[in-house]
Amino acid sequence: MINVKNIYKSFDETIVLNNISANFEKSKTNLVIGQSGSGKTVFIKCMLGLINVDKGKIEFENNILDKMNSKERIKLRQEIGMVFQGSALFDSMNVVENIMFPMKMFTEKYHDEVLSRANDVIKRVNLENSNNKMPNEISGGMKKRVAIARAIVMNPKYLFCDEPNSGLDPKTAIIIDNLIQEITKEYNITTIINTHDMNSVMEIGEKIFFLKNGKKEWEGNNNEIFKSENESLNEFVYSSELFKKVKKKFKD
Amino acid sequence: MKTLEHIGNYFIMLTKIFGKFTKWQVLKPLIFKEIDVLIIGSLGIVSFISFFVGGVVAIQTALNMENPFLPKNLIGFATRQSIILEFAPTFISVIMAGKVGSFITSSIGTMRVTEQIDALEVMGVNTYNYLIFPKIIALCLYPFLIGISMFLGILGGYIACVYGGWTSSSEFIEGIQLDFIPFHVTYAFIKTAFFSFILATIPSYHGYFMKGGALEVGKASTISFVWTSVVIIIINYLITQSLLA
């Protein structure tokens, strides 16, 4: 569980995060949604400790991030898996080397054990027969699977995904969303997904936080989102013609 | 003000490189890879340039010795001095700032742009040590490259002079042995050691701290080349002033 309490962050004069509090639950897919520029990425980077907050606190199972020394932070980071928007695969390594990397870096296990664990997660994300391919030889969807496999290979407690289905076709995007949700349940992880994709919201939004101009405007789940009276949220949700039609049908 | 900030950040980066060390099993292949790319990969261009520039230096010296009272062995002497004191250590380093420096900046910069450095940081890796330290170790072999450059430069001068009819083989060899001061070689290698550290760290700094996209990677490589060259020239002056003057 991750608990965020009244955090503020500004760059020069611009306030990017303004008094945000949120509670990200274990074994659930927690979604942070909002328009581009709403502060989602800064929010996620603050939670990862890549950006320090100006005020407020972030607790990982009652351990306050700001009060951790560098050793504790490094230890915490080894409990975090991260799927980046552009996958961020190491382009000098092939698929299996990318996945083995965290284990080689932080465990004393023998090569065979590391390889066996990597093959297990490769199977889990349905990526068999791609072990020796380089990142530039695989599709966008496959890259996301490799990134997910790399993120879960160390059995993390927390999984962060920054727009995991951006640049993917709708069908592949749903497959990736479902894969993340399955993994969340299977590994009992606290998963935080940063997205502006309404399909993801509908598919896996067990807990949703809506940000606008750095403020948390709304909190709920995918069943409640259509019933919400929040104007900003409705503006965001019904910005596409498809969802406008869905809303109309829903009302009729 | 901005320049002072960069200098400060550069020195902070240096302290972080020697912070938490990456596991040896991970570091070892990285070091060998960097040796292959940065040192072995530069052998061809360094040899080619050194050989031909050595030849040109010898011919230019011969052409400028119109006075018949000047002994012909001076061609070998001047070639040796030019190559050992300046051409091999300094000018090859400026060329390497373009070749190796741009490569280092663009490879680290691309990792920054594609969030690979963020991915390493989230994992808890000391990215300064992981990315820059292997380059520093690999470039510890840089003096060998300069040694080869010295040899090939003088050989180029010898071949150009002897086969071009400017001097005889014995006169050239006599010239390169004339008034030989071993400390000049030591001085050249001291300079080289400083330059190798500069070649590894300044381009890394520009790659690591770059912001933006693909276009900025190109810009960062250019800026890195300019600053690496400037620092090499300044350090060259300071070392020469303190060791030879």
List keywords for this structure.
heterodimer; A: 252 residues; alpha/beta; Rossmann fold; 2 domains; 4-stranded antiparallel sheet; 10 strands; B: 245 residues; mainly alpha; 9 helices; 84% helix; 0% strand; elongated
Could you explain the architecture of this structure?
The complex is a heterodimer of chains A (252) and B (245). Chain A folds into 2 domains: 24-51 and 64-79 and 156-252, P-loop containing nucleotide triphosphate hydrolases (Rossmann fold); 94-155, no CATH class. Chain A is 39% helix and 24% strand. Chain A has helices spanning 40-48, 70-77, 95-106, 111-124, 140-152, 170-187, 198-204, 231-237, 241-251, and strands at residues 2-11, 14-24, 29-33, 55-60, 63-64, 80-83, 158-162, 190-195, 207-212, 215-220. Chain A has a 6-stranded mixed β-sheet, sandwiched between helices. Chain A has a 4-stranded antiparallel β-sheet with strand order 2-1-4-5, with helices on one face. In chain A, strand 1 (2-11) and strand 2 (14-24) form a beta hairpin. In chain A, helix 3 packs across helix 4. Chain A is globular, with a radius of gyration of 19 Å. Chain B is mostly helical and 245 residues long. The chains are: A alpha/beta (252), B mainly alpha (245). Chains A and B meet through helix 2 and helix 3 of A and helix 4 of B.
Structural class of chain B: mainly alpha
Strand order of the largest sheet of chain A: 6-7-8-3-9-10
| Mean pLDDT rating of chain B | 93
Helix content of chain A: 25-40%
Shape assignment of chain B: elongated
Average predicted confidence as pLDDT of chain A: 87
The pair of chains with the biggest contact is: A-B, 24 and 16 residues
Topology, number of strands of chain B:
0
Q: Round the Cα radius of gyration of chain B to an integer and report it.
A: 21 Å
CATH class of the largest domain in chain A: Alpha Beta
Helix content class of chain B: over 70%
What assembly state would you assign to the polypeptide chains in this entry? heterodimer
β-strand number of chain A: 10
Structural domains of chain A: how many = 2
